[in-house]
């Protein structure tokens, strides 16, 4: 896959086959995110890689999926749920740039996973206290984002923004995701 293909393919996935992700790939994701750019090289992010099936199962109810869709369509059912997670935390009070570091980190993980055909979802609407409790996260690690991972069992396609201007993602007749993206001319000035 070249970078353009990877950028098109690297979408949010919310339904997964139950084939586990190879632990060696999960390890690689962590090795590669370890060395991403970080403001002031501060490296305030901390991670919890969750691959134990019992813990993966326990985390599922703490996630709020797909705010744009009715719950029965957007929330993965049993047999469709992600098979691994990476929790991204900031240690202590962090620094003024830590959310930007977190964004860089999750995108790195998502692209790296996608290169192996593994789908992901960056999740912010998560009940962090439940997650901290389930995973026994150290007290001074503050969860910021959760990455869901697994082999996708649905597709996701980029579509043009319709006449109405709505940027709400939706499901097509095959329950595949359609994600409207604004045209470049509408978001980028060239000088
Ligand atoms: C910071 C951030 C937080 C997100 N939180 C959630 C979430 O809590 N639940 C969810 O289902 N999707 C979440 N998403 C996924 C977005 O809904 C998704 O990126 C958007 O619909 C565009 O789809 P795409 O990633 O395929 O381009 C989040 C994405 C980002 C970048």
TrEMBL record:
InterPro entries the UniProt entry points to: Nitroreductase, Nitroreductase-like, Put_nitroreductase_C_bac
Presence of the UniProt keyword NAD in the record: no
The protein's name: Nitroreductase domain-containing protein
Keywords: Oxidoreductase
Family the entry assigns: Belongs to the nitroreductase family.
Gene3D superfamilies the record matches: NADH Oxidase (3.40.109.10), putative fmn-dependent nitroreductase like domains (2.20.180.10)
Organism taxonomic ancestry: Bacteria, Bacillati, Bacillota, Negativicutes, Veillonellales
Pfam families: Nitroreductase (PF00881)
Domain Nitroreductase, residue spans: 11-151
GO MF annotations in UniProt: oxidoreductase activity
Taxonomic superkingdom: Bacteria
């Amino acid at each position: 896959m070249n970078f353009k293909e990877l950028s098109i393919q690297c979408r949010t996935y919310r339904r997964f086959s139950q084939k586990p992700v190879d632990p060696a790939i999960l390890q690689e994701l962590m090795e590669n995110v370890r060395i991403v750019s970080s403001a002031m090289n501060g490296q305030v992010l901390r991670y919890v890689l969750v691959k134990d099936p019992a813990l993966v199962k326990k985390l599922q109810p703490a996630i709020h999926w797909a705010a744009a869709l009715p719950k029965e369509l957007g929330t993965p059912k049993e047999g469709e749920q992600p098979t691994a997670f990476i929790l991204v935390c900031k240690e202590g009070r962090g620094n003024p740039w830590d959310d930007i570091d977190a964004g860089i980190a999750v995108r790195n993980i998502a692209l790296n996973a996608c290169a192996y055909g593994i789908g992901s979802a960056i999740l912010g609407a998560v009940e962090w206290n439940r997650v901290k409790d389930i995973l026994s996260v150290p007290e001074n690690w503050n969860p910021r984002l959760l990455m869901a991972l697994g082999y996708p069992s649905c597709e996701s396609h980029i579509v043009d923004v319709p006449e109405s201007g709505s940027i709400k993602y939706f499901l097509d007749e095959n329950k595949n995701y359609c994600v409207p993206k604004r045209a470049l001319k509408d978001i980028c000035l060239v000088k």
